[in-house]
Amino acid sequence: MPRQPVADDVLVRARGLVKTFGEFRAVDGIDVTVHRGEAFGFLGPNGAGKSSTMRMVGAVSPVSGGELRIFGLDPATDGPAIRARLGVVPQADHLDEELTVEENLWIYGRYFGLSGRQVRERARELLDFAQLTERARHKVDSLSGGMKRRLTIARSLINSPEVLLLDEPTTGLDPQARHILWDRLFRLKRQGVTLVLTTHYMDEAEQLCDRLVVMDHGRIVAEGSPRNLISAHSTREVLELRFDLDDHRDRLDDVDGVGERVEVLPDRLLVYVDDGDAAMSAIAGRGIRPLSSLVRRSTLEDVFLHLTGRSLID
């Protein structure tokens, strides 16, 4: 079936999108626009509505309210046509561990109607891309977690999708495996694949996303590029102070006036400032001696904390 061209560069458009489960509104009237060639992210804690949104975009979960178009098509009536143009990387890998690495790709390719010759050629390309060529004839159960994740991504690309949906792509991976995966996704974006991902990792969102929305309780609380969100909702730097006491609210008077604002976490104070070293000197000048202190740049975690009063990982 020939692919219907998209009228403009908007591949995903949602207006007032709602998803309910009984009385519970998992997604509460959000507006989202994803453009061709960009990496777009949904950032938020578990339960924010990210995965529910992704399932609707993936045309596998019906819309409860509002409007959703993917490639200009309505998922309620054009689900198969939409899914044929998508690649999906779910939270769990769901690989057949009794088969070899290449056999997992062959079987998946046949689901999309590729011929035997086509699926073997495509599998060779994807194994090379995923750095799994040497493991092609190994059983899946012998792979590390990072290798299984790369194989899942390779499998999702078997149909040469225009949009790749990734739900928490690096959850449970060690730092080295995460960085390898980020590199593979960056290469995909350079090849023109549009990425749509969910994550609750602030560093992942900053590394991968051109633009993102911050979600909380099913709603969008902010939207923009990582840099613009940090600029709009936080300061350039943050001074973290830890004291030897149970309740850090008891030390709020010590830092009064030092920064633009102060956030109290169970184990530390976060003082939001433009110059962290100057703020640290001001604290020392008051004779205050914290147990430890750290100056760092602001992150998307600080944006979320400012907007919601909660950490991304509760």
From TrEMBL:
Translocase in keyword set: yes
Domain ABC transporter residue range list: 12-242
Keywords: Antibiotic resistance, ATP-binding, Cell membrane, Hydrolase, Membrane, Nucleotide-binding, Translocase, Transport
Swiss-Prot/TrEMBL GO biological process terms: response to antibiotic
Protein's cellular compartments: Cell membrane
E.C. number: 3.6.3.-
Gene Ontology terms, MF aspect: ATP binding; ATP hydrolysis activity
Class of this enzyme: hydrolase
Gene3D superfamilies assigned: P-loop containing nucleotide triphosphate hydrolases
Any matching Pfam family: ABC_tran
Entry-linked InterPro entries: AAA+_ATPase, ABC_transporter-like_ATP-bd, ABC_transporter-like_CS, ABC_transporter_ATP-binding, P-loop_NTPase
Principal subcellular localisation of the protein: membrane
PANTHER family: ABC TRANSPORTER ATP-BINDING PROTEIN (PTHR42711), ABC TRANSPORTER ATP-BINDING PROTEIN NATA (PTHR42711:SF5)
Name of the protein described by the UniProt record: Nod factor export ATP-binding protein I
